[in-house]
Amino acid sequence: MDWGTILGNAISQIASPTTAAYALAAIGISVHFGYTGLLNFGQAGFMAIGAYAFAIATLGFGWPVWAALLMVILASVVFAFILGLPTLRLRADYLAIVTIAAAEIVRYVVSTTGLTPVTGGASGLSGFSGGFYALNPIPEGTYGFGPFTYTADGWWVRIVGWTLVAIATVLVWLLMRSPWGRVVKGIREDEDAVRSLGKNVYSYKMQSLVLGGVLGGLAGFVFILPRAVQPGNYGTALTFFIYTLLLLGGAATVFGPIVGAMIFWVVLSLSNGIIVGLVESGIVSFLTPDQAGQIRFIIVGVALMLLVIFRPQGIFGNKKELSFSV
Amino acid sequence: MRLAVPPALRMPRGLTLIVATFVAAVAMVLGLGVAGASATSATPAPPAEGAQFTVGGIIQAGPGNPIEGAEVLVEGNGIEETGVTGADGRWSVALPGPGEYTATLDPDSLPEGIEPTQPDNLTRQVNASTTSTINLLFPVGEEGAAPVVRDEGALLADRIWTQVVNGIIFGLFLALAAIGISLIFGTTGLNNFAHGEMVTFGAIVFWFLSAAFREMAFPLNVILAGVITLVASGAFGWAQDAGIHKPLRSRGVKLVQAMIVTIGLSLAVRYVFVIIFGTGDQTLNVGFSGAVDIGAARVSWTSVASAIISAVILVLVGLFLTRTRIGKATRAVSDNASLAAASGINVDRIIRIVWVLAGTLTGLSGVLYGLYRGVSWDMGFQILLLLFAAVTLGGLGSAFGALVGALFIGLATEVSAVWLPNDLRYAIALVILILVLLVRPQGFLGRKERIG
Asked: Which fold has domain B53-150?
């Protein structure tokens, strides 16, 4: 077993663009679930919308990067309205089922063979990130130290991803300190009390859904920069991963989503590296390498259960703030 | 005891109606089945009977003029097989499993003077997913004769009928599992996201047992494997309540938290299945073969038997809920747990019984669904949202609503495949779910105050 490689791979996950994408999506969920109390189980759908909006605007319409990004935001807003209109007046568990259903509808629609010319069907889309990398101001070459050594393009995608995460974090932090944030948190604690103060609860919930949804759409954009768009990536498991890391960090906290995403990916990479290493070196003989790759999902599932039962407020959270009051 | 029940007495009236509709539907299907069986019994058996997935059809130049010896080439998923029509014009090819196939009619194999009426439509895409028997129609006619012997309308009607029969069968399987979700939701308020894994559990246990009992004679192996599977499924439900949800209730853990726990459980259990079962599809073959014509639809006897078993069990569950003391107590707990507890019902015991019952019914649903479409590690998770859609459409917490919702979802997924691409069939069910929530949020049979 090569401990150096395993540790290096695990540590480099801290800054990976995938971690940034997960953190961004988790900030969106923290707006929905942590602050407003909306049980959005369709964040994978928002990410799929963002990813496909960017890829189709670039490949299909030949738009520049800034216009494609506007498309991402617009598509996320529209999806949030479609989702919110029928469900935000209903009880929380209805919203959970409808959002998860809507995310699955998106996945079925983008992977249907009839739409292959537009969405690429089951094999997805690729080759859309040329315009993004053409904007890279960093000169060619390899920079960095230790496990954090990347090419110029590697740095560019990380800088953009984490800048978006930082902007979202500051934005959400400022919003939650504002009067708007106090109303939204009031809705989470007691909807009827807020309604009796004359606030339009439905409208506030919709604004929150749109804000978190746009963050989810941007997360989809960051997610696809280092890879192709593939419909299989946007299953319900993606949403549940994001919930796990959000609950790990703390659902209603400023840095919870970021630290949660980092810990999630480091632990996942580390445990996967160790298990695969043990199997390959013959110490564990009852598993094949393929099976060993699945163990991390079992770890995530068990971690999610234990977290919710024993530390629902996460690492940073305040237990009083997150009482899951539904 | 009696005092606790009246709030829930609203249900039996609904039940009578549902059971009547339901029995009528099953009787209709079976009645046609018997008629169809007697009509085909004299003809030679098609080659692929008893296979899990088959594609086939009748090639005839008008009613009563079947074409013998016509060849249809089926390709894809590693097979390349030719189906040849028999004296009755029937052909069928067994498929190794779900997947994409193409079927091509060879025009040269048609007898002199007969030609396809749609010469540019000889290759068809076949998508085997949930429907185990796929009918294809290649219209042929005499050369130069009026081209369409069986007109478009009749062909369409045949396809719709086939999908209606498939939809009822699929809906019955869904109903068994959906009633489990509904009972658990009704008594505890919990949305159980690990329910799909209970379906898969039943199918996988049955698959292992039927492989272990391969040496045994036909009826004994199925009965033994089935009984052990049901006991194991009931134990799985018991374990979930005893190991997870009872302690959570005692700690006063909120419902959303408990729901996220079931999501974690679902993820963990699903990947345990991958490790012990693998990612491939396996077919269940219990040595029960043959098929029957129900009108234009050809359905394997396994599916017919499964549908009958589902129907009988569903009626029994209905009787259990309305006629027995425990069933009445279950409905009382669903209605108002505190009131039920105050009138002397042991709520925790009822919830435990509900979990065991739900586990058993869902395991049975897994066995029957596994016989219908094969076993895979995520088969239950794939239909989990359809189950939620069924329960929500019927009315959250109403066991009889779940039956109506499941039949509706089963029909919607199968019948929509007549007009829409096969890979969108689940999406349709979910779109319907959202549309129904817009106009009638409490579902077909739910009470208005439930939506809160």
From this structure: Immunoglobulin-like (2.60.40)
